[in-house]
Design goal:
- This protein is 0% helix and 48% strand.
- It has strands at residues 9-12, 21-28, 32-35, 40-45, 56-61, 64-65, 69-73, 78-80, 82-87, 90-95.
- The strands form three sheets. A six-stranded antiparallel sheet has the order 6-3-2-1-7-8, with no helix packed on it.
- It is elongated and about 55 Å long.
- The two termini are 13 Å apart.
Length: 104
């Protein structure tokens, strides 16, 4: 089970976007994630009339390493660590500081 999943609210703890918050859009491989509004770059795209791409300069969100983000705890308004707990043969994720359940 992954500690950070698609749909989680995370905060960036290292890099040029440090302190920004966003939602995880997707995972890329084992150790990279794409976060909404984080690590956005400008890409020069060629036009492709067969699919209908006009081309030009587009804004694109690139992946960020999972070690540079932490899950955001809304109750304490801070970043937090993720722990696991077994409850009725189900493995669930909890916040380490408060022990509350992480909503998915």
């Amino acid at each position: 089970m992954r500690k950070i999943r698609k749909g989680d609210d995370v905060i960036v703890i290292a890099g040029r976007d440090k302190g920004k918050r966003g939602s995880v859009l997707r995972t890329v491989g084992i150790d990279r994630i794409v976060v909404q509004g984080i690590n956005s770059v400008k890409k020069h795209q060629k036009p492709n009339p067969t699919i209908g791409n006009a081309g030009g300069i587009i804004d694109l969100e690139m992946s960020i390493h999972i070690s540079n983000v932490a899950i955001y705890n809304f109750s304490s308004k801070k970043s937090d660590r993720v722990g696991f707990k077994v409850d009725n043969n189900n493995k669930i994720r909890i916040f380490k500081s408060t022990g509350d359940l992480i909503k998915t």
